[in-house]
Amino acid sequence: MHLEIITPETKIFDGEVEAVQLPGLDGSFQVLRGHAPIISALKEGMVKVDLSMTFERFDKTSDLIQDDKSNSKVIRVAIKGGVMELQNDKIIILAE
Q1: pTM > 0.70
Q2: Sequence ranges of the domains in the chain
Q3: Under CATH, which number does the domain 2-95 receive?
Q4: φ, ψ of residue 48 in degrees (nearest 5)
């Protein structure tokens, strides 16, 4: 699955993932490869991303990305709200 996390200022993340857990308005939910198309509003909270490969921080890596010290294939991104769309195994999160 491909994931993009975008804010009005910058693109925070763009890469391949196995699963994404999101803070929906009615509670947390997770999407996996092959999930039916969905659009959902998001509330303030943490987006948990299970990566396809080990995460490596580079000079241009957003400071909003938090590494999971116990698992190098997991990152978290704090958002203040937004909206997500999943279609054809491509997730776009427009976050505040």
Answers
A1: yes
A2: 2-95
A3: 2.60.15.10
A4: -100, 130
